[in-house]
Amino acid sequence: MTKEHAKENEEVVLDHGTGARLSRELVERIAATLGDTYIGAMEDSAILEVPTGRIAVTTDSFVVTPLFFGNGDIGKVAVCGTVNDLAVSGARPLYLTLGLIIEAGFPIPLLVRALESARDAAKEAGVKIVAGDTKVVGKGEADRLFMNTAGVGVFERPPLVSRAVRPGHKIIVSGYLGNHSIHLLSVREGLGFEKRVQSDCAPLNGLIDAVLKGVPQGAVAAIRDVTRGGLCAVLHEFARASGAELSFARAALPVLPEAVMAADMLGINLIHLANEGCLCLFVEADKAGDVLGILRAHPYGRNAAVIGEVKAATEPVVSMTEPDGTQTLLEELYGAELPRLC
Amino acid sequence: MTKEHAKENEEVVLDHGTGARLSRELVERIAATLGDTYIGAMEDSAILEVPTGRIAVTTDSFVVTPLFFGNGDIGKVAVCGTVNDLAVSGARPLYLTLGLIIEAGFPIPLLVRALESARDAAKEAGVKIVAGDTKVVGKGEADRLFMNTAGVGVFERPPLVSRAVRPGHKIIVSGYLGNHSIHLLSVREGLGFEKRVQSDCAPLNGLIDAVLKGVPQGAVAAIRDVTRGGLCAVLHEFARASGAELSFARAALPVLPEAVMAADMLGINLIHLANEGCLCLFVEADKAGDVLGILRAHPYGRNAAVIGEVKAATEPVVSMTEPDGTQTLLEELYGAELPRLC
Question: InterPro entries, from UniProt (chains A, B) (predicted)?
Fold first, then answer.
């Protein structure tokens, strides 16, 4: 893309996706926008050094709407989502790939803005974007912009796996539940909560590294980032993996009062909503206090709380205790009718 | 997804993308369809062994239309495209990730069919699918089904890079030019050529391995798969990388007569069209015969031909010699108006 093409009203056109000169110029512009965060060599594959013999690999596609929201956008979400998926497995995120599917007519300045966010998030997380791909589809064949990121990390400590979770482990949540979803729903529906409830979207590899460095190896059994399906889906996943009862207290959940109000208005429960910067950790009981302290000392873990524990059970269940002591078994939601939050 | 959900008229719905039970059931069905080709552990990241300290990483999104064509479909293209991108860099492809973006209303039996093709192609290529992601968007928000694959390979020999190409190298093409595009355009436009001109979509890692094993190290300087932009885009890329003249003879190009007829009808040139199973190789002159022999002995290289050579020049150009000896300098195409062929 020459300077003439970078004008404010310039749009992505079908020819940008054909592999010819215009394609190449768009790719060069994308690489320039990503700056030194991008280390692809314009070959068909990036050639990378991995210092360990064991790697973590993950992928995620992002179809967020709106593309740009109060304190983030699809570019930030696409990088943080994959960085976090690597980090919760105990890996150090190193490399990301970035695949773009762009609807013809999408404004190039908005594409640049999303890429700048991706670049900034990658910088914060300390990862490099090593390979990319750009496809253009016709008007009406995609909803503006979809991103896919795949990630490669290395294991400098043993991997964290869900089967390590056992009765006796404490369950810790690292931040307010549902803020990302409430923020996006508020922007989408014009509810007016979006200023008071911000998305929590953030790269959490630094937070996770601080926790894992701060306690003896094995004290943290497993970590999961709370995304689609919310805390409830995470707890059901770990209940199935451990065959245990995952029990938490409703009053212990870290929630922002404005988010509760918004969720009540929408008739939904925060435990089913997606975050993009919130962890659920399973920790040895005698180290739970240490982990909580480390989380709370970090900007992304200030509102962390111990919410419950893993109990021996004859079948996997998720249970919630009310302030009056009554207990409810939580079903796994069948569907949620809340698509495109991440 | 329970058996009741696998009925012929079952469709993907928005709830399949919400992270709740329906999502999980769809993901489990996807994993079951991929069979032992899928080695993801249903954690957020796959944990993988890499036998070398140097890896190749690449990504590609696929927006092919039609999704299903005469002798292939988006699932096959998505696996072969990424396998080939890894293999042309000299890497052995090991692991793929698979990201799906599905339009609500897409028939589940067609999704299964595309995944079966992806599985079969992965089996043939000897790669495992290690992580996946599924997003569902509303009707009209995507054109049925998009796939993204990212790939990880290992280097058991030195990487092949475009800057190794030098004057004196012979240029070899491994098969008929443009067949994949002509096949898809014929299906799209109802031209009637699709039976006689089949897509060449295939995993080429076996073919590349045979070539690299069969000649001394360094004899093959670089390989590129001829995809978007066609042979002309590949030659321009290598002209820029080497600063040399890339010269070929029109009469030497391997082309299928029916593909030439179809291209003439469409007013396009086969050198600009995408393949999905065709290589362009840059080879030391005294080993070109050996490489050609190895290619022609392989089912995917039967129609290989030496088409030209790299010549010293003052600026990078691509030149074509006609049968009467006249020479044309080929411009890089600006755009091609032929989107969504891969």
Answer: HypE, PurM-like_C_dom, PurM-like_C_sf, PurM-like_N, PurM-like_N_sf
